[in-house]
Structures
1.
Amino acid sequence: MLAPMQFRDYYETLGVPRTATVDDIKRAYRKLARKYHPDVSKEKDAEAKFKQVGEAYAVLKDPEKRAAYDRFGENWKNGQEFTPPPDWDQGFEFRGGERSPGDGADFSDFFESLFGRASAGGGGAQRRGPARGRGEDHHAKVVVDLEDAYNGARRALSLRMPVLDDEGRVSLNERTLDVAIPKGIRAGQTLRLAGQGGAGHGGGPNGDLFLEVAFAPHARYRVDGRDVSFDVPLAPWEAELGATVRVPTPAGDVDLSVPRHSGVGRKLRLRGRGIPGDPPGDLYAVVSIALPHAETEAQIEAYRAMAKAFGADPRAPQKG
């Protein structure tokens, strides 16, 4: 898990409003870059400020990075402790290749937590090519349910493509695609939608759209590759004496055999009941103990009888 860091308000860094056009952002950057350039500036901490200005410009000049940044940036104040939300960039459609290693620019941990080692170069403009040529490939991250990986599904997925309007401001073009989610898909895998990328030039073919799949957080299950785990609460006598209990799984209810002396945290494996594949993953039931409350006199007496029968001090190991 990423450690909290200080949020950076790129608009404040450049001294422009959130409604600034691309030209406004360029002018502000050029002015501040001249002011803080280490070769000429006599300002205190000029080099650090020059880097901050360059980082802000790398995001705000790029319609795609800017749109993604705007999605959550307005909820934070400059200098506030910040942790990027999970899958914060899902649903945004980006032109060109996948985010790739940087060009040597010295970006902050905050920048890299959002965009990885993304190039400082803008991805918002179409690359120039021959009069007739193939359109650019597009990339996006989409979130599906774990159950879709077990059963396969068709889903209507909405994607937003950041573009510049006639006034040089970022707007979002939204489209919805009917996408087949194949049985056995894993988080991090990519689906290719042929011809759904950028338009071709001069009658050339369209590019492709590559969808990186992530799973939505689940209230019950945790995923690690093809393996899935969940907590199974047991009564004390079930855990100690052994039992067969009915438990839900993403593929339906199954009978789970609980061996004797199953302590808290023990993993009980259901082989092959993880995410389907060749081979399939495993499903792990992690033991927890559900201690019943003593409400009636008979239940209270049952606990007293247990205390008398066992007489063990559970804190003995702490006493050495």
2.
Amino acid sequence: MKVDEAIAGAEANGQMVKDYLVALRANARQWSANTKGRSEISHSNKKPHPQKGKGLARQGSLAAPQYKGGGVVFGPKPKENFHIRVNKKERRAAIRSLLAEKIREQRVHIIEDLAMEAPKTKSVVSFLQACNLKQRVLFLGEAVYEHVEGVTAPVSVRCDKVQNFSRSVRNIPKAWFALACNVSGYDLAAVNDVVMTEAALTQITEQLK
């Protein structure tokens, strides 16, 4: 299958691709870790022991961090929104570059269709063995857009056509399935081989132009 030169010959600045991948991972964080300091601990205000007469260091509260159940010193707190914005042109350029790299390394494999009559993991495993694809494989299928009356833009993406195939892949270690419209640069960078349909390649080519 002939690949558009805009995709096959795409190149991008390495630092830009790295910044894009770092932004993807940073934006996936929840930023919800939360610990309590000594002022937030629900604990007795009674002194652990008398101030004098015991020969021990003076202590003021059981909520102090050196006691079990006490507050945490400099623990994580929910932070502000640290979302990193990625420019649309930079995102497309990074994905084009990562996809072109896979094409040049001959790690992109085109198949006619992903349709299956019923979910069958064994069939997908046999296919991977026949193609000698053993580690980290990404399957890409085409998306089907649905238009609602009065709305010009697609409002939903259905994967009914490849639903059986996606169910067949999800139990295979180090194999993933995604729709071409949802693929990210991290998906391409994290795998060794990409298997996609002709329609998926056409779709992703149109999106990245």
3.
Amino acid sequence: MTDITFFSSPIGLGHATRDSAIISHLQKLNTKFVTGNYAAEFLRQSGFDVDDVYNPPQFIVKNGKLQNSLMWLWRYYKYYKDCKNICSQIIKKENPQVIVSDEDFASLVIAHKQNLPSILITDILETRFTNGFSSIIEKKMNQTMRAIMKKCEVIILPEEGTDQGNIRRVGPIVRETNFSREELRKKFSFNKKTIVVSVGGTDIGKFLIEKTLKTSIVNNDVELVIVSGPSLKIDYGKNIRNLGFVNNLHEIIFAADLIISLAGKSTIDESKAYGTPSIFIPIKNHFEQEDNAKGEGFSFEDVNRLDSLIWKKLNEKRNPQNYNGAKKAAEIIKKVISK
């Protein structure tokens, strides 16, 4: 029997990274993670007990633009149905006190059928991938999603704001480090002004790496470090370091002088928490990334003026923020378990 069975969406690495931040405040509880692909590898490397059982559909992205959203939604629906069967078996085996889901709605459906307490962690309250006639299908999916949300004991949103109903806004959820910035720069051998390009857990951010490599920064006395993730196996040459897949991106962000990244919420929050100047380029037509980027003053079109943005941001002062979202989320989970 586990205290918490934690179902974490394997689409990207952001869900798993923030979930690891929450669990760091729940170390006395017996927790089993359920996810898949590189999210499972990240959690395993971070020392957590994890079942690698999910295989989600991948976004189709060409030159930084999301393609055929309706097809992806259809594939996601089929994946969701498969996940319900997987969740049912795991919940029966683990017999948890509470189900925590980071945007894994299949686990919530099974939890509600078995009258188990459930907690949802999410960035969004509805999706907006499609428009026109295709949006009819997505609207029905959103209706289903809202019905599932209503049955949750608590919905945790990693953003600032006012609570309402069963929604608790705890502020950004970020990982902590025990090292100073100077110690991390020494650890990573960041000896010059250092720019880190991070594109997450898939190959959809390849366009951003390619655009950065065409800027004038490459020919200057600045160190360019690529965090390409696990799926991009590229040799960028002698003068550019590719770290590939890392499980401590938050520390690399802290050590860097500038972050260039896709507009995933976890990377944005960690960059702001550590005060590192940043440039966020969203996947075009990906509503969530476009919303995230807009909130930071960026859009997809900024990829065409990276050169000027880099030089401007590289000289920007650091402005760290004190976020406490991970601890607040952990306290909410404790209260649900103790009921």
